Amino acid sequence: MTIIWRPAKHGFWLWMLLISSLNSASAQEPGFLSIDCGATSNSTDAATGIQWTTDEPYISTGINQVVFRTFNSAINHNQLVTLRSFSPDRSKHCYTLPATPNSTYMIRATFVHGGFQPSMDNSFRLSIGSNIVDRLSFVESKIDKVFSIEYVFITDLTSDVIDFCLLPNGGTTAFINTLELRPLGVEMYDVVYGGRYLKKLIRWNVGATDSDPVIRYPDDVYDRVWFTPETNLQIPSAKTSRKISLETMRDNPPLKMFQSACASISLDGWYLSIPALYEPGLTQTFYVNLYFAEVQVVEATDVRSFSILLNGETYYANLTIGTEGRQVHSKALTETSAGATFTFIPVSGATLGPILNGIEYYGSGIWVVNSTDSRDVNALEVIKTSLGLGSWTGDPCFPVPYSWVTCETGSRVTSIKLSNYSLTGTIPTSIADLTALTDLWLNNNQIQGAIPDLRKLTKLKTLHLQNNLMRGAIPSTLATLPLLSQLFLQNNKFSGPIPAGLNRTGMDLLETYRNCTPPEFCRFLLPPPDSPPPGSPVFPSIRVSDGSGTIIGGLVGGVIAAIVIVLCVWCYYRRHENPTTGTSPAVGGNNANQTVGASNASSTRSAAAGAAGAVIGKQAKGFTLHEVEVATHKYKTMIGEGGFGPVYYGRLSDGTEVAVKVNSETSSQGTTEFLNEVSFLSRVHHKNLVSLLGYCEENQQQILIYEYMPKGTLREHLYGGDMKGRISWGQRLDIAVNAAKGLEYLHNDCIPRIIHRDIKSSNILLSNKLLAKVADFGISKHASEGDDTTGGVSTIVRGTIGYLDPEYYVHSRLTHKSDVYSFGVVLLEIMCGRPPNSNTYSDPRQYNLVQWARGQLNSSDLESIIDPSIRGTYNMKSMWKMAELAMGCLEPGGVNRPDMNQVVRALIVALELQGQTTQTYEAPKQVAGGGRANEHPSIFNTEISYSSTQSSVTSTSDHVPSWGNPSAGPPPLLIPQSTFARLPSDTRSTDQSSMSPKPRWLDGTQTRTVKTLNTS
């Protein structure tokens, strides 16, 4: 029912005011959220009536910035003049947006740099929920260009928020100008209900001209933006004001788009060519909508009927256009290497040429729903509140963990490292709910209060609470933690006795000094060797009542005096040493002389260690040179050579087999430096690192004694004349995982962190059970404090040819990503069973493994690079995951490589895939250096038949991001210009064989037959 109200003569302005208020109230659809990032006040768009809000309610990190350069934008120009930028000191910065569970949304993010900072140094990724959906990289040529990216996805069944995160890469600044959230209708873009998401690549109002405005809200009730095509279409444009019936449209396109079209009056065929928009590791197939409706005045006898070809093959036959709208769609279209070419050919009996009104072209990627275990999420929320970490939002583990969190598979938090975070407050009792925790580091903050009950943390290995303001007794419950081996409590205000159980066997390090209230319960331990002496400005003297400070000071002074006396005696004897009874057996003399020499050497070693201030723990036992020579039978059996020097087999007096590394004679490292480094390495413990058992420093000879790995090196099981036996693909994956974990520990958990600098297959050693351990690390290879993936460490280039990071080689800039590159070469060795470079393998021609494998993968030929000895034994999905990871590690630019944490996660997924047996499908054919195509055969929602000689593989989803084409770097933000051109008028022939080259998947053994196509 329509009610007409005619206002009185003098009520005209009241009527206009009412109309204006009604328009304003209805100007925005329910659920619209438009965020003006960096703005300081809310605003309303004059053209659309859409209301914009500041971003302060949705994010708590970043700073407001202003765009300084001029730019052109067809939409939201006023909102793009501000932005919010984010420092690289965090792994992610997340907007938390309100949402309705199990609902379909479109999210649009817009970026324009505009000179907000002096340099164009911006490379970052975007994530929605647990999915990394884009990689963005800005260069100088893009400084005043506007980039708008849209995604369509469905929220999960329970979450009432959407996390949209910016993930900085390699020390660069992330930024964003606007963020828009739009709810879509039920069942729109229904492919998202099948576990996928969409990224908008093209959305064109095909019949628009340059003078026509873009179509958006309110003409499109979902505020999708329909642009004029980027190129001159060369096809006549026609328009109508007639209302076109759209009742059968599944994705609710706007009427205004249907009221214009490119239409051929004559019987000319034409084509629309879209270049390859495949994004390795992200979108893999494509969701396409083609829209048709008659806009011209035609005679009753006219017939507009044509067929559509896709890459030369029939896509839809005999499409007849009438007065109602038509939609032809593809849910999983795949491209050839040249892209997708749609050809429109009039059929026999047609009197009018083809017509096209609009097109939507989306990339389609796998949508994964992952979240951290709810117990850990709840515990971390309390911890963030208690310690002032509320600005950390988003899921703690996915798609990348917080900078201070480490997560293992199973979505559990295993490590919290919050050293030097300026934290205040107290440690909440809920921290004990993180029952998978192995490492807890809260040192060097301003934390107060007592140590809570941690008895539920049965997996805890290290606890760092030093250098805080904590009080109370040391809980006896700490002694009940079965795996706790390192406990640091020094420089707090703890009181009372140290629980007796903490002195148990297995406690490697227990530091409690500077906790003396009251003094009679104090246990005084000397500070570690790198600490200033007591009484210095940095480490003031300990002050306690009842004169205990004087007593402790006297003790310290006495210890120092004793060390000085020992040094003086040692120097005296060294200066007056009898040549006939020298300390080295190599000098000569009988066995008695050798024994005396060994005793002197032992004193020498102890005194030198004291002079260096080194704390040589029980894990690094001191040996005399005589003991080393006896163990090695005078260096009889050389078993290898590393960066430190030659390696010899040995057996200690207790029967322990060891590998003895003897420093080269050219080493210039002094005694003090050597002992300090041995002190450090004696504290480096991980099951995937070769353990340092002992050392010897005598007669200017420096020797390291490591555990012996009886199965030799990984290289010896992959290729070469000294092969020790082939290993299966599953064993290779397990070795890769364990080696990566060892390297991850060096990069992330050592203080200072270690860059290996010479990762190669001969530095990965194997135990009797093929447990992989990384060797030859540590000595003179510490990463300088503050090193990151961009700053680098200027140093002499060292390493092994074939494994060297090209960025390191060219710029002498060593980073942790240099190790990642070398490890990528190792992954190729594991896959291919070939050395990194050689002129003797298989044929006499010299080759480079990285270049060769990259070329084969770019040609979509994975099977040709796989080691023949393992063919037929592997799961192809697992092999693809390994190939993608290797190519990601081998990216020329370090900022584009994964870190070792991500490498470990990806390898675990590959290992899990190898053990799974689910529905099989034909192996993906298109990789482009790391991606996958044809992953799901049901494209177009039709029956597709395949014929392939490739191995069947397991179909499964995962949450680990794939790593793409190493030669391309991050994909460009600009969509390549498409081709839209006229075909000759004589192309009506039903013989379509000459229309265009056959796509790659139609060549050779790959065939495809499209039988039916869903249309509306």
UniProtKB/TrEMBL annotation:
InterPro entries: Kinase-like_dom_sf, Leu-rich_rpt, LRR_dom_sf, Malectin-like_Carb-bd_dom, Prot_kinase_dom, Ser-Thr/Tyr_kinase_cat_dom, Ser/Thr_kinase_AS
Lineage: Eukaryota, Viridiplantae, Streptophyta, Embryophyta, Marchantiophyta
SUPFAM superfamilies given in the database record: L domain-like, Protein kinase-like (PK-like)
Organism: Riccia fluitans
Recorded coiled-coil stretches: none
Pfam families: Malectin_like, PK_Tyr_Ser-Thr
Annotated transmembrane regions: 551-573
Principal localisation: membrane
Protein kinase domain span: 633-909
Keyword list, A-Z: Glycoprotein, Leucine-rich repeat, Membrane, Repeat, Signal, Transmembrane, Transmembrane helix
Name used for this protein in its record: non-specific serine/threonine protein kinase
